[in-house]
Design brief:
- With 351 residues, this protein is an alpha/beta fold.
- Helix content is 30%, strand content 16%.
- The chain is built from twelve helices and eleven strands.
- The strands form two sheets. It has a nine-stranded mixed sheet, sandwiched between helices.
- Strand 7, helix 7 and strand 8 form a beta-alpha-beta unit.
- The longest helix is centred in the N-terminal third of the chain and has 16 residues.
Length: 351
């Protein structure tokens, strides 16, 4: 992987937060993603959210798997803890780290291939177990690193860049997260920073499994007419050795619209996305109603964005396991070796 470091200097007039960090202190290396990629907009939103929440960079643990989306943690919070796992296995590593040290803020960054295909079981079990984390899927409905095949979230009937039709039903990760018991469920669009930043901030402050599905159009392989994950669809309703691919730089697409409004977004290739932002009177405390609302809007071809469900009194995995207040990685022999009598009593209680 090519690593391009940013220069150390920063503008002297950058305003710091109360910890003394500027927004520059929450950035990472220079992005190597395609110009105009929605993933970079998501990275920018996460950086802004963490800066505004005034979380020290060393208190964050960012995890990822494999894919374009899983490269993005390298482009944010360079001073944070980080681990890039094998394909689809990020949730297990995050769960283990969380069990060992619950004092860190855990941020899982994944993609639709990483979470909805090879890692679907990992995603499901981390959510149902109640791991305290913010889990963000940068969802573009395509395998961008392997030349644009359909991903598991590609909608049935959508068209690939090469003209093929997807005949398989797409997996709705938001509906799945609701059914699995996630206590914070939201969906956003990479081009709607006004909505995405507050959602990320709320997810980071939430105790329990917080899931955000963020539609993030791929400017190279899934931003064309017929795609339901392209910029336009959301906003509006090589084997030869010497073969070269040219990626034309694109400008990011931005959208701003009011709660309760439906916005059609035209993407770079002319395809259309239809986004529906939840109205302010929407009740996010009803899990069953949220599932029904999603189904009704999906039947109209609309992608619902906003905070879909939240349980403010939720608990996490440590509450269920009744672990001690001290992080497990800080326990010493005195706490870990209680003696033969205590061990005998414990064994007797299990017989």
């Amino acid at each position: 992987m090519t690593y391009i470091a940013k220069p150390k200097f920063a503008h002297p007039n950058l305003k710091p937060n109360s910890l003394g960090y500027t927004r520059r202190d929450y950035e990472g290396s220079v992005s190597t993603l395609c110009a105009g990629c929605g993933h970079d907009s998501i990275s920018s939103a996460i950086i802004q959210a963490v800066f505004e929440l005034e979380i020290p960079p060393h208190k964050i643990a960012k995890m990822s798997g494999i894919g374009c989306s899983s490269k993005t943690p390298d482009y944010m919070m360079g001073a944070s803890h980080g681990f890039n796992t094998v394909h689809g296995r990020m949730p297990s590593v995050l769960t283990g780290a969380n069990l060992a040290n619950k004092d860190l803020v855990y941020l899982g960054i994944s993609g639709d291939g990483d979470s909805a295909s090879i890692g679907l079981g990992q995603f499901a079990h981390s959510v149902r177990r109640g791991v305290n984390m913010t889990y963000i899927v940068e969802n573009n409905g395509v395998y961008g690193l392997t030349k644009g095949q359909f991903s598991a979230t590609s909608d049935k009937g959508s068209k690939s860049k090469g003209g093929e039709i997807n005949h398989d039903a797409g997996i709705d990760l938001v509906g799945l997260a609701l059914q699995l018991g996630a206590t914070f469920v939201a969906r956003s669009f990479s081009g709607d920073k006004a909505q995405l930043v507050p959602l990320v901030k709320a997810a980071l402050l939430h105790k329990g499994p917080a899931f955000i599905d963020c539609i993030s159009p791929c400017v190279q392989f899934n931003n064309h007419n017929g795609s339901t994950k392209s910029y336009d669809y959301v906003r509006e309703h090589n084997e030869a050795v010497n073969r070269m691919d040219v990626i034309v730089p694109r400008n990011p697409i931005h959208v701003d619209y009011e709660p309760g409004e439906t916005k059609t977004v035209t993407q770079h290739d002319g395809s259309i996305l239809s986004l529906h932002k939840l109205a302010e009177h929407y009740d996010p405390s009803d899990r069953v109603a949220a599932l029904a609302f999603l189904s009704a809007k999906a039947a109209l071809g609309e992608i619902v964005t906003g905070l879909l469900f939240v349980d403010p009194a939720s608990q996490d995995l440590h509450d269920g396991l009744n672990t001690v207040d001290t992080p497990l990685n800080e326990l010493h022999d005195k706490e870990l070796i209680p003696g033969a009598k205590v061990l005998e009593a414990l064994n007797a209680s299990l017989r």
